[in-house]
Write a structure and sequence with these properties.
alpha/beta; Rossmann fold; two-stranded antiparallel ribbon; 9 helices; globular; disordered N terminus; disordered C terminus
Length: 256
């Protein structure tokens, strides 16, 4: 499936509820997002729901082979579409090394997933309500010295089990598969995993290597999203390509 994004409404919307404030970035779905873009995300939502329905699945991970493929934008917009039909949804920023969800939403920094897993804070105290109804977010928090150990810990497993009691769906944004082992470690907790790739970005061997790594750990790979693909629409619509705004360097300003 092809996912395209464009700038949303100009200006920012802020939420001042509990706890903290949050802004909506230009790349997120809004009332100004073109119809075909919203429909692409809705189609992706339907495919994901059917892919995990047989196992009563609730936990979905989103990753990529390499940095800059748009995985964080994809998972953020996907959670929005899940929440807008009445599902209680939470998004965990599991990219503890190079978190991006906070930048996308414009949220203030503070304790998050890392502190919860280290038992410095309780999850109830750091989960943020988003501007989107039914959608909560648990940001990454301060980068820990041992990300993979935290994500593979019993505390992470207990957290997911706890969140299952409260939410209909749990989404986890994970680091690129070919860069670190975090995504493969998390795969045992997932009911489904989506691999995001950007057209003309990932090389074929990079994508195949990512798939092989996921298959080796028996990850439940339910699909690959082809992001930022050129599209052709008929009638009064136009040719175009909606690109997200990212830098390519994963170490500074990543495109995810």
């Amino acid at each position: 499936m092809s996912i395209k994004t464009k700038p949303a409404s100009r200006g920012t919307r802020k939420y001042a509820g509990k706890p903290g404030r949050m802004q909506v970035a230009d790349i997120l779905l809004s009332e100004d997002t073109p119809f075909h873009v919203r429909e692409a995300y809705k189609a992706l939502r339907t495919n994901v729901m059917f892919s995990i329905a047989g196992d009563n699945g609730k936990v979905i991970g989103v990753t990529s082979a390499v940095p800059g493929e748009g995985k964080s934008t994809t998972v953020m917009n996907l959670t929005i579409t899940f929440a807008e039909i009445g599902n209680r949804v939470i998004l965990l920023d599991g990219d503890l090394r190079r978190p991006n969800i906070q930048r996308i939403t414009g949220a203030e920094s503070g304790p998050g997933l890392a502190e919860v897993l280290a038992r410095f804070v309780d999850v109830e105290d750091v989960v943020k309500e988003s501007v989107y109804k039914n959608l909560d977010i648990l940001y990454s928090g301060v980068m820990p010295p041992n990300p993979v150990e935290l994500l593979g810990s019993k505390n992470m497993e207990a957290l997911v089990d706890r969140l299952k009691e409260r939410y209909d769906y749990i989404f986890i944004d994970t680091p690129p598969v070919n860069v670190v082992t975090d995504a493969t470690v998390l795969s045992r907790l997932l009911d489904g995993l989506i691999l995001v790739t950007r057209e003309n970005s990932s090389k074929r061997d990079e994508l195949l290597y990512a798939v092989n790594r996921l298959q080796f750990v028996n990850a439940k790979l339910i699909g690959i999203v082809l992001n930022d693909k050129a599209f052709h629409v008929k009638s009064s619509y136009r040719y175009g390509k909606y690109k997200s705004y990212y830098a390519r360097d994963y170490g500074t300003n990543e495109r995810d």
